[in-house]
UniProtKB/TrEMBL annotation:
Residues 31-147, 245-367 form the HD domain. It comes from Vibrio diazotrophicus. PANTHER family: 3'3'-CGAMP-SPECIFIC PHOSPHODIESTERASE 1, CYCLIC DI-GMP PHOSPHODIESTERASE PA4108-RELATED. This is HD-GYP domain-containing protein (C-di-GMP phosphodiesterase class II). Residues 223-419 form the HD-GYP domain. The keyword Methyltransferase does not apply. InterPro entries: HD/PDEase_dom, HD_domain, HD_GYP_dom. Keywords: Hydrolase. GO terms for molecular function: cyclic-nucleotide phosphodiesterase activity.
């Protein structure tokens, strides 16, 4: 039996929004920090409109995550094609669905659903006035960020005065139809000031967020289920990046939970390992899609690129969860008992039981899923490889023994597309 580990069920909500924004930057656009700028412009405009501090901070957060329904780079490229791109509904609906299923963030769902809806249509939709205002402002800030990128920068990489003027003229031309009039007037006033343009650097925006006063939303005490729901949201964003890894994080979570229970770990540890499984691959959002989808063997530099994801996972999770053990376990899922793993080359007793559990769950689930270079393996093929990994001293034999006793059930759990969650995992 392992020594008890105190699990801190706490999430830094402010940092979570920035983590999502950075994750979305990694999906495939060249112009990063789009969410940061949209959030900042929306916040500045809301402050100028004298909205409440709570509303200003909520719309800031909305700007950071407004594209959470975007799954792959082609979706982003579509948004950059013109002022009113086609096929925007899909990512709005997906974002709405993701947030609707995440109770702590469900209040943002309607805004995300309508954040590309023209004002002349939005004003007639039956949703709360606040959601309507939020959606209108996010749409305006989003398109301002799109417009400014249509013009070349000066020799010092600043947005030129000509570009600023053209942006203001264009949103003015669309005032009352695409955009809400009062918001346009206030945004034009803001964009006439140098301060706004110079403040659109990501480090200035993140520094601003650290100086904001407390509001009820960010001071709320989250329950265990809320923390898991946020982790599930992140898992859905990660898994959607590739058709070959869809459901991977959720399935690893379910397998971890079940293995922990059958190994005699207490319910707190079972839930913590479920959470770890959900977020263990969050660093893969920084991995290029071309590498994830490569149909053949990775070359040396590509493999090195893949290896980054466990370290990226560690630092991303520390922003969200602080120094929780979950961050360590997630970052260790590619460590091996013989020291051959990565990124730190841990071995033997340096790898604790939770890290060993997630390593077994991750390998097992990956083998049961199709990949660009192979189809789904049979149970016999999977167990042959798992046994070889144990005999070579890379994976934990006690953890695998538990899996072997119920191998058919674990295989079925791993390949089914429905997700029972930790409450009902076998």
């Amino acid at each position: 039996m392992m020594s008890p580990v105190k699990i801190e069920w706490h999430v830094n909500l402010r940092q979570t929004f920035f983590c999502i924004a950075r994750a979305l930057d990694s999906i495939g656009i060249d112009d990063i920090n789009h969410g940061h700028r949209v959030g900042y412009m929306a916040y500045a405009c809301a402050k100028a409109m004298e909205w409440s501090e709570e509303e200003c901070q909520l719309v800031f957060s909305l700007g950071l995550i407004h594209d959470c329904g975007v799954a792959q780079k082609r979706d982003f490229y579509n948004l950059l094609e013109n002022m009113q791109p086609d096929n925007v509904r899909q990512h709005c609906v997906r974002g709405y669905e993701l947030l609707s299923q995440c109770p702590p963030l469900a209040l943002f769902a309607d805004t995300i659903l309508y954040h590309h809806t023209p004002w002349e249509e939005l004003k007639h939709i039956d949703i709360p006035d606040r959601d309507k205002r939020f959606a209108a402002l996010i749409f305006l800030a989003d398109r301002v960020d799109y417009l400014k990128e249509l013009y070349p920068r000066d020799e010092f990489s600043n947005v030129t005065q000509e570009a600023r003027n053209e942006v203001c003229l264009e949103i003015g031309r669309l005032s009352g139809t695409l955009f809400e009039r009062d918001l346009v007037r206030q945004m034009q006033s803001l964009l006439s000031k140098e301060f706004i343009w110079f403040s659109m650097e990501y480090h200035h925006i993140e520094a601003l967020s650290q100086s904001l006063p407390s509001t009820p939303f960010f001071e709320q005490k989250l329950e265990v289920g809320d923390v898991v729901a946020i982790a599930m949201l992140m898992a859905n964003i990660v898994d959607a990046k590739s058709q070959f890894t869809f459901y991977h994080s959720q399935k690893v979570a379910e397998i971890c939970h079940s293995l922990a229970r059958q190994l005699g770990l207490n319910s707190e540890m079972q839930k913590a390992l479920y959470l770890t499984g959900l977020v263990h691959d969050i660093g893969k959002l920084h991995t290029p899609e071309d590498i994830l989808h490569k149909p053949g063997k990775l070359n040396e530099s590509e493999y090195l690129c893949i290896q980054r994801h466990s370290t990226d996972s560690r630092y991303t999770l520390q922003m969200m969860f602080g120094q929780s053990a979950v961050c360590e376990w997630a970052a260790n899922h590619h460590e091996r008992l013989d020291g051959s793993g990565y990124p730190r080359g841990l071995q033997g007793a340096e790898i604790d039981l939770p890290s060993r559990i997630i390593a077994v769950a991750d390998v097992f689930q990956a083998l049961t899923q199709a990949r660009p270079y192979r189809g789904r393996m049979t149970l016999e093929e999977v167990m042959q490889i798992m046994s070889h990994e144990v005999s070579c001293g890379r994976l934990d034999s006690k953890v695998l023994d538990v899996l072997v006793k119920n191998e058919k059930e674990y295989y079925e759990l791993s390949i089914q597309e429905s997700s029972p969650g930790w409450v009902s995992a076998p």
